[in-house]
Each structure stands twice: as structure tokens, then as C-alpha cells.
Amino acid sequence: MTRFFAPAKINLGLSVLGVRENGYHDLHSLMVPLTVGDELEIRPAEALTLRVEGADLPTDERNLVYRAARAYLDAAGVTGGADIVLHKRLPLASGLGGGSSDAASTLLALAELYPSDVDLPALALSLGADVPFFLLGGAALAQGVGERLTPIHDLPPVHLVLANAGAEISAGDAYRWLDETGDFSSPLRLDAIRQALASGVEVPYFNSLQAGVLAHFPSVLTTLEALADAGLHSVLMSGSGATCFGLARDEAQAQAAAGALAAQFPQWWVKVARVEA
């Protein structure tokens, strides 16, 4: 049996530059994996089976993990299958890339169990624009529709607190709300973001999707305000939401802020995390 950690990600800035004629969006985003995430157990088997613990999710081709496994097994010409258990610990539809990370970890695990010359990045991209990022194992600048990845190796250690009030937000809706306003943005200032992260000051990043989400989900604004009130800085929504985060000076401050938030909002999902750059 192979155990694989499937890390969450956040966007340390997400700029949507515009929309293409085919409806896809041009992005400029600094994506970083975190120390929190889901976990997969995978072992060889005669057939492909999936079980999900921790969430009510389908276990057939409607599940991205199942589709990833099926795609790899077919591409590698494997006659057998795999028994997969997905331990879901991240909230659903939360802007943390959980499904994409689970799919990427499935590909990596099966590549260990059934080695082949399958082009993993191409297979990952066929499953979703965010899936290739999770094959890298580190921070990256994502451009294009998210498929053009440039590894970023010089980010400082960053401690943060994640908070999710329970809303499930469709990425399709978040992008549609942005399209309705046309409030597209300029590229992120990567050097300024790096310098601010290293100095522990307010980070000059933004999320192009945030305004539209706030207009439809007041709970996300409540989450951002609560993170700031807990003493965290540079609060931002990750991806299409609803998870938000705030940066801390160090792990001790992150732990204290998370404890205060969990006590004030016991129904929220609140976690301390660190950027795995």
C-alpha cells in the first residue's frame, strides 16, 4: 500500500488578465502548496475501486480521483486496477485545489505502483488546469489558463491561518461574476510580493475573483474581517473561495489566532498551515 499526502494550495495573489474567445481566462497567479491537505491510500488490485472517507462524494467517474486513476491505468496499459481510499480533510469547493491535488497525487502514486513512460504533465492537464501544478511539489507562477508553470524557489517561510465559514462556491460562478463586471487586472508584482513576504509587512497582492464572490457570499467578507481582527495581516480569499487566509509573524501567532477564531466561530473550519515553497 502507498500513502500519499495531497496538499492544499493557496494563491498568494490571483490576477485574471482577461477572457479568451473560447471562454477560458488568462491568469497570472502565485500558487503555493501548504502543509495541510487530504490523504490517499492506494494499493494494487484486480479492478479499480474508490472509497471516500470524510465527505459525501461519488466514487465513480464523477470523481476526479477515479478519472485520474482510470486515465493513468489506460495510458500505461495496466490490465489490473487499484484500490483507492481518499481521506477527505479539506472543505469541498473551497478554493484550496483539493480535488486537483487529489488527482495529481493519484497519478504520482500509480506511477510508483505501475511505472511507465506515461507523460504525467500532459495527462494531468487533461484532467484540469490546476492538476499539473500539484506534480511540481513547490511554489510556481501559473500563467495562461494555469497550464504554464514557472517554479519559484526563493519564497521565505510563511505561516498562516486558513478559515472557511462553510460556503461552497463554484469556480464557474466566480469567473462568471467577474466576466459580468469586466474588472480584469494587471499582472502581479512578484518582486514586491517576495519582498513583503520576507519583511513580514502587508503584501501587495489581490484576487480578481474576490469582489464578485463578496457580492454574493457575505460570509466570505465576515471571514476576511475575522482573520484581520485576530491580528493577522494581508488577508485574502484563496482561488474562487470560500476559504480565506491571513499571514502571521510566526507559528506562535498563527496558533494563537487560530485558537481565538475557533473559539469564536466553532462551526468554521480553521487550520494553521505553512507554505511549502
From TrEMBL:
What Gene3D superfamilies does UniProt report for this protein, alphabetically? Answer: 3.30.230.10, GHMP kinase, C-terminal domain (3.30.70.890)
Query: InterPro entries annotated for this entry?
Result: GHMP_kinase_C_dom, GHMP_kinase_C_sf, GHMP_kinase_N_dom, IspE, Ribosomal_Su5_D2-typ_SF, Ribsml_uS5_D2-typ_fold_subgr
Q: What does this protein do?
A: Catalyzes the phosphorylation of the position 2 hydroxy group of 4-diphosphocytidyl-2C-methyl-D-erythritol.
Positions that bind ATP: 91-101
Question: Catalyzes what?
Answer: 4-CDP-2-C-methyl-D-erythritol + ATP = 4-CDP-2-C-methyl-D-erythritol 2-phosphate + ADP + H(+)
Protein name (Swiss-Prot/TrEMBL): 4-diphosphocytidyl-2-C-methyl-D-erythritol kinase
Q: What is its EC number?
A: 2.7.1.148
Into which EC class is this enzyme placed?
Answer: transferase
Family recorded in the similarity comment: Belongs to the GHMP kinase family. IspE subfamily.
Q: Which residues form the GHMP kinase N-terminal domain?
A: 63-138
Instruction: Cite the annotated pathway.
Output: Isoprenoid biosynthesis; isopentenyl diphosphate biosynthesis via DXP pathway; isopentenyl diphosphate from 1-deoxy-D-xylulose 5-phosphate: step 3/6
What are the protein's GO molecular function terms? 4-(cytidine 5'-diphospho)-2-C-methyl-D-erythritol kinase activity; ATP binding
Q: Which domain of life is it from?
A: Bacteria
HAMAP family according to UniProt: IspE
